[in-house]
Design a protein that fits this description.
mainly alpha; three-stranded antiparallel beta sheet; 50% helix; 11 strands; 478 residues; 9% strand
């Protein structure tokens, strides 16, 4: 990287030259090159950006498509999601927008013009690619309109240009970190966009590098030995001087298991840095806390290695971490929604739907377009709770749900007409099938056959014998 200029000072590309510059003061603007150096070289650079993403994405989203042959449809979606490596795409978009304040995502296919929308058939069948772009790739395109009377005020709704080449708005996504501030230029993002997570922490990040230098100096001095001996008189000749020099060399060469001899008036000690250690440790802790506050993120994420200390349940730190991670997950939603649509088109293509119709006869009378619309409309994806319940806790929850289902059946079954009785039983079966921990094999309930049987019973006028549904209601009440 070439020389950088910060407030007129010419700096080299090394981290120490950059962050130890005297011109860096609290509130200074963060440039693109500075943000890149912090991420690639600073000890906390990658942790600030990536650790929250690692925790937020440590669990897979739970996909549900209830208005469909769910298992087969869900498996196809997940397989295509993994084939396109969409988790990595989401991670990289979030990573770059946190580093620079803005990032972009585009997709396309070879030999397809970038400035037009791709059809469903093209998306489903062609070999598509995704590119994640940082603000240098899109400089001059993502600036946000600053006219408060314009419909696109503080928004990017037009065509994205990548080094002068336009991408149709349906094939691009611009993600910003935090909301833009009116006429507040972001140097790291080359536009009136969001801000880098490093912006407010720039001065504290510089302080942390100074702490590293201090640690390095202490490490070098920790092994210094101090030889205390009686001072020699002015008449000490060269022979005495050589004697003391030889003694020093013996001390330097000594190691565990050696025996050395010194006179009774001499002693060997190390540098006393006990108080220095306490001071350095306190300053380091406070510096990291300042960086975390400025980022902002829970300080535990930077003070602890791994997730164990961060995700300790029952503490205030855990609650703040949960809130922060849930905010990160919410921030990811626009990227997930953008990719979900593409994955659905590719996973649920016409060839796949033909297999679905062969396996599920009830789908044979439903057209491909209608089926896809229904599946898309009922599609939901959410992250599970960060704190996973144990199997015994999940079973207790299922027991509470089962009791509630039984109470509903007992209260409503005796008073419903046959049609609504079948609906109520279908509802109960659906809820029981959702309990994967308690019932691993789902019950395939034929609602159509039940309705047909009920219609015949009603046409025959029933009889004095109690119906199976009334018997079930009685058993439930017992």
């Amino acid at each position: 990287m070439g020389n950088l200029t910060i407030n007129g000072a010419s700096l080299g590309g090394a981290l120490t030259d950059l962050l130890l510059a005297e011109d860096i003061k609290p509130g200074d603007e963060l440039g693109y090159a500075t943000a890149k150096v912090i991420y690639t070289h600073h000890a906390l650079g990658a942790a600030i950006v990536e650790r929250p993403l690692d925790i937020a994405m440590s669990q897979k989203r739970e996909i549900a498509i209830p208005d469909s042959p769910e298992s087969m449809i869900k498996d196809a979606f997940n397989a295509e999601w993994d084939a396109l490596d969409c988790d990595r795409i989401v991670f990289n978009v979030m990573r770059l927008k946190r580093i620079y304040g803005v990032a972009s995502l585009i997709y396309g296919a070879p030999d397809i013009a970038t400035n037009r929308a791709m059809t469903r058939e093209e998306i489903a069948t062609l070999d598509i690619y995704f590119n994640v772009l940082d603000p240098l790739n899109t400089a001059g395109s993502v600036t946000m309109n600053q006219n408060p009377n314009a419909p696109d005020f503080q928004k990017h709704i037009g065509e994205l240009k990548v080094q002068g080449k336009g991408y149709h708005k349906s094939r691009s996504l611009v993600a910003i970190n935090e909301e833009p501030i009116y006429i507040s230029w972001t140097g790291s993002g080359f536009g009136y966009v969001g801000r880098s997570v490093y912006q407010r922490a720039l001065f504290s990040l510089k302080t942390f590098v100074q702490m590293q230098q201090t640690n390095d100096l202490l490490a070098k001095k920790a092994g210094v030995f101090v030889l205390k001996s009686k001072a020699q008189g002015s008449l000490a000749d060269n022979m005495v001087a050589r004697y003391f020099q030889k003694k020093i060399e013996y001390i330097k060469a000594a190691f565990t298991g050696n025996v050395i001899s010194i006179d009774s008036e001499s002693s060997i000690e190390t540098l006393d840095m006990a108080h220095t250690h306490d001071t350095i440790e306190a300053v380091r802790k406070h510096t990291i806390e300042d960086i975390a506050s400025a980022t902002p993120m829970p300080s535990k994420m930077l003070l602890n290695d791994g997730y164990a200390g961060v995700l300790s349940n029952g503490t205030e730190d855990f609650k703040s971490t949960m809130q922060f991670v849930n905010g990160i997950r919410q921030d990811m939603q626009q990227i997930y929604i953008f990719l979900d649509r593409i994955v659905q088109i590719r996973a649920w293509n016409k060839e796949f739907y033909a297999r679905v119709q062969n396996e599920f006869p009830e789908c044979r009378d439903i057209s491909y377009d209608v089926a896809c619309m229904k599946w898309t409309a009922s599609f939901t994806a959410k992250f599970p709770n960060l704190l996973e319940e144990t199997d015994s806790e999940k079973i207790k929850v299922d027991e509470s749900k089962n009791k509630a289902i039984i109470d509903v059946l007992g209260a409503l079954l005796p008073n419903l007409d046959p049609d609504n009785k079948s609906r109520l039983i279908a509802w109960a079966v659906d809820n029981l099938n959702d309990q994967k921990m308690t019932f691993q094999n789902p019950f395939n309930f034929d609602d159509a056959a039940l309705r047909e049987w009920l219609a015949k019973q009603e046409d025959q006028g029933g009889g004095e014998e109690q119906s199976p549904f009334d018997k079930l209601a009685g058993l439930v009440q017992q």
